[in-house]
Amino acid sequence: MGFLPGPTDPFYEFMLPPSDETPAQKTARLKRELDAQRHSDSIDEDIKLERAEAKKERNVIKVLLLGQSESGKSTTLKNFRMRYAKADWEKERQGWRSVVQLNLVRSILTVLKVIEAEINGDVPVDSEDDELLIVNEHDDVEPMKFSDRHQLLMIRLAPLYGVEAELKRRLGAGSEPLTPSSTTLSATPWDSPDTGINIRRKPEFSVRSWKDVLHQENRDVAQGGSSSQDLDSATSTIAQCKDDMKALWGDKTIRLALRRRGLQLGDSAGFFLNDLERVASRDYVVTDDDIVRARLRTVGIQEHSLVFKQSPWDNPRSGKQTGWEWRIFDVGGCRTSRHAWLPYFENVNVIIFLSPVSVFDQRLEEDPSVNRLEDSIILWTSICSSRLLAKTQLILFLNKCDLLRRKLKRGVKVNQYLPSFGDRPNEVMTVIKYFREKFKDIQKHHSPEHRSVYIYPTTVTDTSATATTLETVRDGVLRENLAASQLI
Predict the structure, then answer these.
(1) C-alpha angle 301/78/53, rounded to 5°?
(2) Where does GTP bind (predicted)?
(3) Per the annotation, does 183 bind a ligand?
(4) How high is the pLDDT of residue 120?
C-alpha cells in the first residue's frame, strides 16, 4: 500500500493554503507558484541544453593551422575542404575565377615593371612587388637592351592596370576596410609587440576572409548585375591581351632580365603564366588545382567546419556512429597578427604547424632583418614550450619541398646559410631529413610533458599527394581523440 499524506505529515500541513486566505491572496499565491514553476522549468531546460551541448562538444576537434605568413596554411585549409567539404567547395568554385585572374594580371604587371625599370635604368620603389625588383648585387647593373617590340608590348598590355584595379575592387567589396598594423610586430603570440618597425613595402592586397568574398562573387554572378558585367569586361580584356601576354612571357630578353634581378615568378604563389592559353580564355573554367594554387592574402581568422559522419573505427554491426566535427582555424601568420593567436589556444586539440623548408635564404617581408627559417624555429619553439598547449597534439608539415628542389637544382648551397648543415650532400632528401631532426629535437627538449610529434614533408599545392597526407593526419587525430574520450 502506497504512502498517503495525512494530518501527521508535516509537509502536508506546510503546503496547505492559509485557512483565512482571501480570493486576492489566493490569486497572488497561485501566480507566485506559477512563476516559480516556470523558473524551475527554465533551469531544467538550460541544464538539458548544457548537457546536450557538452555531449556534442565531446565529438568536436578544434584544429589550429599555425605558421609564418606564406607558409601554406590557407592552401592546407583548401585541401581539407576540397576533400572533406565537397558541397561547399563546389559552391565557391566560380568565385575563385576573379582571384586567379588577379593573380595572372599581377604577374604580368610585375614583368612590365621590370621592363620599365630596365629601360629607365632604375628600380621602382613604390610598387607592391618592389622587393622582387632588386638587381642582384653580383650582376652587371647596366640596363639591358630592349627593342621597339618590347615598348609596343608595354603599350598593348597597359589596359591590364585597369583590370587589376577592377578585380581588386570586386574582391575587396566582400571584406571590411583594412587598417594597416604593419608597425606592431610580435615574434611569438606571447611576446610584447615591437613598435616603430619600418616595413619595406606597401601591404599586399588583402581581404578579411576569402569565404565572404567568394560568396559575394557567386551572388553577383548569379544575379547578373553590374558586378557580373564588370567581371565579363575583365575577362574580355584579359582574353584580348592573351597573345601579347604569351609573347611577353616567352621573350628571352625579358626572361634574362627577370633572372638577373633574382625574380623567380615560378616559385611564387598564384603563378599562372604557364597556363595562359587556358586561364586567359573567355570560357575559362576554374579547376581544383587552380583554386589550391591561387593566392588571396587574408588578415582575418578563417574558421571552417568539417563533419565526418562516422569514424574509421566505427563497427558497422553495432549500428553506432560516433560522428566527428573538426573546427579548423587559419590564423594570420605575419608578425603583425600573432598577438591575436592567444584566444584560440584555449581547449585546442590539434596544432598543424607549417614550416616552409625552402626559405633558409630568405628574409621576412614584414621585418627584413629576420631570416625566415629563424623566425619559423622561434615560433615552433614557443609553441612546443607553452604549458597552455602541453596536452595539444602537434603535427608538423615541412612544406614547399617542391620549391626546395628547384632551389637546390639552381645551385643554391644550404651550408652557405646554415653552417651546421656541414658537408652533408646538398640534396632534397638530405635537407629534409636534417630539418626533421632539428624540429623534432626542439619539440623533445622544450615540451613541458612527453608527447609525440608527427612530421610530414609536404607540397600542399600537390593535391594528390596532400590528399594522402591528410587522410593519414585525419585518422591519427581521430585515433588519439577517441582514446582521450575513452571511446575505444
Answers:
(1) 60
(2) 267-268, 399-402
(3) no
(4) 81
What is the pLDDT confidence band of residue 122, given thresholds at 50, 70 and 90?
low
CA atoms within a 13 Å half-sphere pointing along the CA-CB vector of 380: 29
Q: Which of 404, 395, 393 is nearest to 459 (CA)?
A: 404
Query: How far apart, in whole angstroms, are the C-alpha atoms of residue 173 and residue 167?
Result: 10
Round the CA-based radius of gyration of the chain to a whole number and report it. 30
Between the alpha carbon of residue 90 and those of residues 78, 83, 170, 273, 288, the distances in Å are 12, 11, 21, 25, 9
Residue among 132, 98, 99 at smallest CA distance from 113? 132
Three-state SS at 308: strand
Provide DSSP, 258-325.
HHHTT--GGGSTT--GGGHHHHTSTT----HHHHHH---EE-S-EEEEEEESS-TT--TTTT----EE
Q: Is 268 annotated as a binding residue?
A: yes
Q: Is 87 helix (H, G, I), strand (E, B) or coil?
A: helix
The pTM of this model reads: 0.78
400 appears as a binding residue in the annotation: yes
- The answer to whether the annotation marks 120 as part of a ligand binding site is no
Name the one residue in this structure whose C-alpha cell is 575505444. 488
| Residue 130, all three cell numbers | 618592389
91 is in an annotated binding site: no
Closest to 83 measured CA to CA, from 304, 286, 272? 304
What is the maximum span of the chain, computed from C-alpha positions, in angstroms? 115
> Is 355 annotated as ligand-binding?
no
Q: Decide: 69 and 366 in contact? Cβ < 8 Å.
A: yes
What whole-number distance in Å separates Cα of residue 364 and Cα of residue 334?
Answer: 9
15-29, 218-232, 254-268, 291-305: segment of lowest average pLDDT: 218-232
Known binder of ligand: residue 110? no
Interval 298-309: pLDDT, tens: 777 888 899 887
